[in-house]
């Protein structure tokens, strides 16, 4: 049974069609890259997958259950974790609190209040930070970290949250190439180790080919192609980006 | 699965922030301690029968339950209160006018970047003296509350609107001066220096460079202080400086409770109206 | 820059300035300007007051009294601010609506809280003091509540505005990690506005010192009370001593809040 099952999803904003009858499945453990020109609907798709945006029509089954049946936030947080471009962290809190925020869904009220003063489940946070190579920054204020380090803190939070599916919306767009590769390599490695499923939107086809086994290309809210990386040719890509420009 | 790793220990450093937290806690403990022990003020004895009786009398008085003809149903009283509100409004406007004039006359030398010459490129030895002098005056002016200024002023001026306006202006002059001096200090120096290096005189720099750049912010601050003055205008009346406050104090000492209700209504309307108008103006000034 | 200098824009600001100027001139007509405005001995009094400024009374007795009443003034400012912060926190959070998810409920609770904040801050602390003294008599709590309620209104409104201005992304990320609204408040909203909240509270603390000093006007101790007594005895030199203490407290708190603000920038 596929983990993510999208059937004929459409989403309309005002008069603009963001997604039109979109269907695809993602199996457990798959690594999927979403590419396509800007405005193709990548972000809307990811927001739909995360349950933030409700589609107008179509069905979305997450682990065999319709997404709207996940009433409790903490159930959803077990299934889906999100990482974005940046600004995702609370810059004025220490790194450890940002990492432990991944546990908030699990904790009761008193434990989470107490943790603000005496961090709980410290070992868990330390482990996660160790895996992203930031153990020494445990107590630093998050705002003092560089952009790449902040994204790694966001990764550590995902490790602590440990969802079945990770949705990443251009997580490296604001980083310089070297840092971007670091974060991507780390994210894909961790996902493989944890046996998770990853869906990531990217503007760089290079990265998509290098780190992902399957690429879904979107254009004008539709699936343009959905192929294993090995089958993608230059012509595919030329068509994906060129046609858009000609239409303009 | 989860391996034990050594968690690095937190580096503890005595920072200014930590010092501030300790100081704040000490102040809290000392102050509440003073209230509980030195003043022997028990919070719960407040809720005794006697106070309940007073409160009942006071509130039923405010709503005019014992009076046959409460002030707020009386036409004469409304006219009188309206007149006082009008006076208070005049007092506030006059106060903000005085404060603005005084602040504008002194603000230029009171800005640090004028004193050290970064804004005008010219340096004069006496500028630092002027800077220090006006800054000290500002501190004096704003550290002393309006009411204390009013208490002193009524020794010099006869009761009426003028002493109230002067007292309000004396306090707000320092606040406006400080705020406006900071605006000048925050202006981008480059265009003004260009003006100076192209041979403009000091007066030209002032009228073509500085004033147009800082005026919008000044206006915002003047309007903001105007709101505050409107709210404070009532208290200078307490010491005989005219307006709603003076009548309020009189009514309270003669136990004319319904008059108090009426005056409070007028006062709140005045404050809300001032807030509303000033917000509209501030949006227009942006 | 072009937009800045558009004629309409200049026109708007110019007319605003003219309106304000006209209002000021109108206000000047309320006073009949003559020598009669001054008390008979007005000039002489002014000279005496200024003499006191140059030669304040620095005798040990007065200094001791000044230190003591300075402490009392600080005590009421601190206790009043405690009450104010509690009011501001509760009504500010409710007024921002960040804890409520259903839209109609949020509009009602936030609107109601903001209305309460507007009313309690419109009334000056001294008016509150007079009302409280009328009800509970000359208790220290009259001063504490009289200070705390309007300051709570002022702070609460600003807190609510700050909470509403928090950027959406980090909060959304917390929600995605499974945080409830209360979690978002503790782990998101509050840490994000913390430094602004502290600077503004410090600024208001400085104001509360002045307000605390004038609480004496309704018969509660402190610097204002001593100033009033000395004025009644026409001892202007003593008045200035107490005023210098008041100025010193305000300057000290100002310096504290400035250096704290510099270290709090995120």
TrEMBL record, chain A:
Keywords: ATP-binding, Cell membrane, Membrane, Nucleotide-binding, Phosphonate transport, Translocase, Transport. It comes from the Bacteria. Pfam families: ABC_tran. Residues 4-245 form the ABC transporter domain. InterPro entries: AAA+_ATPase, ABC_transporter-like_ATP-bd, ABC_transporter-like_CS, ABC_transpr_PhnC, MetN_ABC_transporter-like, P-loop_NTPase. GO terms for molecular function: ABC-type phosphonate transporter activity; ATP binding; ATP hydrolysis activity. One of its GO terms (cellular component) is membrane. This is Phosphonate ABC transporter ATP-binding protein.
